[in-house]
Amino acid sequence: MSANDVLQGPVLETRGLTKEFRGFTAVDDVNLQVQEGHIHALIGPNGAGKTTVFNLLTKFLPPTRGDILYRGKSITSKKSNEIAQLGLVRSFQISAVFAHMTALENVRVALQRKLGTSFHFWKSEKSLDHLNERALELLEEVGLREYADTLTVEMPYGRKRALELATTLALDPTMMLLDEPTQGMGAEDVDRIVALIKRVSQGRTVLMVEHNLSVVSRLCDRITVLARGAVLAEGDYQSVSRNPLVREAYMGSDAAEEEGAHV
Ligand SMILES: Nc1ncnc2c1ncn2[C@@H]1O[C@H](COP(=O)(O)OP(=O)(O)OP(=O)(O)O)[C@@H](O)[C@H]1O
Predict the structure, then answer these.
(1) Does 3 score more than 50 pLDDT?
(2) Stated pTM of the model
(3) Which of 13, 38, 50, 107 would bridge 221 by S-S if both were Cys, CB 3.0 to 4.6 A apart?
(4) Which residue's C-alpha comes closest to atom 2 of ligand 1?
């Protein structure tokens, strides 16, 4: 295989990815391929294994079997921080954003985390200015410039989720893993986040777990449907939503009810 073949392959790939919890197979021989530049959704009814796949991809959990490849190289035995350094970054949950710091301070902390190792960096006033500039740029990018000095605890929920994206972008990801980015949002916030994800995904690859199928239909190039830990179907929104197996798997589940509510 030439170097070119590697670059043209999927950005992120799993081969036979399996996770068992005391004999219960939560993720069952999953072969996932995420192509460069795509927004790829991982969907499926409750308990399908989506969160477990995410936890495996970001090394929160070790797999029982199988391999994970990023840009053609195995990352199966790497740690969370090591894969973040490779550019594969999971969005932080709100709980990881400091409630009693301002939006600007939170983004600055994320930027510092990225630069963390270079202590000498902090000795220069100039570099601190630069950090503030970059933090403001990131807030601008997610439409939060006016919230720069607002305490995070006082921000509306939808804006906190946007801040979460800004702190993710601070780590300079080439690929972002977004865990239910529109969860718990009203329609207006959902629209704003959809537009935001569209914008920040330019030049990047995104894999997202998302229950809201309207969001998936508007954003995603490709969709993988999980059911009972295994891949049930894969394709674009049209083909997946017409698939009788997918319809059956969603029938009677909470996700089907959500679909009704959102589509
Ligand atoms: N640490 C664990 N120990 C035992 N079983 C687990 C553990 N984590 C997940 N499971 C089980 O694995 C299955 C898949 O769970 P997972 O949370 O990955 O599904 P999901 O698709 O993300 O569901 P949801 O949409 O409800 O968040 C479930 O049956 C769950 O009970």
Answers:
(1) no
(2) 0.88
(3) 38
(4) 21
